[in-house]
Specification:
This protein is an alpha/beta fold. The strands form 2 sheets. Strands 1, 2, 3, 4, 5, 14, 15, 16 and 17 form a 9-stranded mixed sheet that branches. An 8-stranded parallel sheet has the order 6-7-8-9-10-11-12-13. It is globular and about 70 Å long. The termini are far apart.
Length: 458
């Protein structure tokens, strides 16, 4: 059967391809779930089977945003422990998080996904690592919420096996055993991972962090991931305290420790990576290990300023992450474009640290690299999957900024007129088409109150 086509034209286009190709006024043609063509001027008039033709005047088209680090369940614990550093924040919140159940996780995932999708995210990920016993199918609830929302999705199936009695931060009743964590992770890969080019759901192996998992879980988790052919994800070098923890417990810094357990490689990406010295950055570059940069969360928890310009200069793959909404209450990735640029200008290189186009690349192609999907998404090129966002830039908020990419990154958060995922409409005129936003808000509010009551009862 001949392909059905969607045509977007009369718009500015930032392709984010290898050459940074842009068009002041151009067109994109989508055929089924693929990008068929992109170029200057209007689309060819004789195209057949055009089911929709969109006048993009006053808009910018970019690849869909790619989120590389999140914790969906935290949507129902926003606004707590607002003046804590990471370790104190975790100690304050783990006893609450340890009481989540399947309805809470489903509601939190729906809220997190809805907030990201309506702000231009077309590929999301969730690092879920809290699996209290007897609380239902949490991974299935998260995956189901992503399918319902219509976004492309990676579940990083997390785990913790180092509770407080073993020197870790989470309470003992919030962690799994080594064997159960590995078995459940493998089952999740077997049930849900899709290796296809246009996969909507993929799975990664993701023990939580050096201070909440054993060395055995890290090393055996890496072996499991490589045996199954999936990617690996964890937190790394987030705070000074983490570095001290690793040196005291393992006799080496986080990067050396990760390398000793098989956790550096082109199939690995780590969240934060704030406290990286030159040799750490060189090790990531040498091995192709990726980074999920989470500027708002790093600032919220006082973790520090990641050396993103130096990472990029060294060739480290870097994408953007929202992080959990207990440390980034907005839950939006498009605001991270601006925050990544501004926060990195507080570092050593100041005004030359990052520019608008580098920030956009972090949030699109860089994220695709980090998730191992740069061949399919992250740029607007023929043959790639039709994950696109049409940003409205002709309102008061952006009217006097001539450069559309500068308007998107430096300016106020731009409304999303249209978001396509796999060629399907997910956002239309700023509203989700796949789920009822108001119903999601009511559900998440109710589950947040229920969790608060349960936690208060102990």
């Amino acid at each position: 059967m001949a392909a059905s086509r969607i045509v977007i034209e009369n718009c500015a286009i930032a392709t984010v391809d290898a050459h940074g190709t842009e068009y002041a006024s151009g067109h994109v043609v989508v055929a089924d779930n693929r990008i068929e063509s992109v170029g200057a001027g209007r689309a060819p008039a004789a195209l057949e089977r055009v089911v929709r033709r969109i006048d993009g005047t006053g808009h910018l088209v970019t690849p869909g945003l790619v989120n590389t680090h999140h914790h969906f369940y935290q949507w129902i614990t926003r606004g707590l422990a607002t003046d804590h550093n990471l370790f104190d924040w975790l100690v304050a919140l783990y006893p609450i998080w340890a009481r989540i159940d399947e309805p809470m996780v489903r509601a939190a995932a729906r809220g997190s996904l809805a907030m990201m999708a309506r702000g231009g995210v077309t590929t999301a990920m969730d690092h879920h690592y809290v699996y209290p016993r007897g609380t239902g199918d949490l991974s299935g609830a998260i995956i189901g919420a992503a399918a319902e929302t219509g976004v492309r999705f990676t579940l990083a199936r997390g785990s913790m096996d180092r509770g407080a009695s073993d020197g870790g931060l989470p309470p003992d009743f919030a962690v799994e055993s080594l064997d159960s964590a590995l078995a459940a992770t493998e089952e999740t890969v077997d049930r849900h991972h899709d290796p296809a080019f246009d996969a909507m759901t993929q799975i990664a192996v993701a023990p939580c962090s050096p201070f909440s998992v054993s060395t055995e879980l890290l090393s055996q988790g890496a072996e499991l991931a490589r045996r199954k052919g999936v990617r690996l994800h964890t937190h790394g070098s987030e705070t000074v305290e983490e570095e001290q923890f690793c040196k005291e417990l393992f006799g080496m810094g986080p990067t050396d420790y990760f390398e000793s357990t098989g956790w550096l490689g082109s199939d690995v990406w780590m969240a934060h990576c704030v406290h990286m010295n030159d040799s750490d950055i060189a090790a990531f570059a040498r091995t192709g290990t990726g980074v999920a940069h989470c500027p708002s969360s790093n600032a919220r928890l006082g973790a520090g300023i990641a050396r993103v310009p130096e990472m990029l200069a060294a060739g480290v793959p870097v994408g953007l992450g929202v992080d959990g909404t207990a440390s980034n209450e907005s839950g939006e990735l498009h605001t991270e474009l601006r925050n990544a640029l501004l926060i990195n200008r507080l570092g050593a290189r100041r005004e030359s640290a990052l520019n608008a186009r580098q920030a956009l690349r972090l949030g699109t192609y860089g994220g695709a690299q980090v998730l191992g999907r740069a061949a399919q998404i992250g740029s607007i090129e023929p043959g790639k999957l039709a994950d696109l966002v049409l940003w409205k830039l002709d309102t008061l908020a952006h009217a006097s900024i001539a450069d559309p990419v500068v308007a998107l990154v430096f300016g106020a958060a731009a409304p999303v007129t249209l978001s396509l995922v796999n060629g399907e409409t997910v956002v239309e005129d700023g509203r989700l088409t796949t789920v009822d936003e108001d119903a999601v808000a009511r559900e998440t509010r109710s589950e947040a109150r229920r969790l608060a009551r349960i936690a208060a009862e102990g």
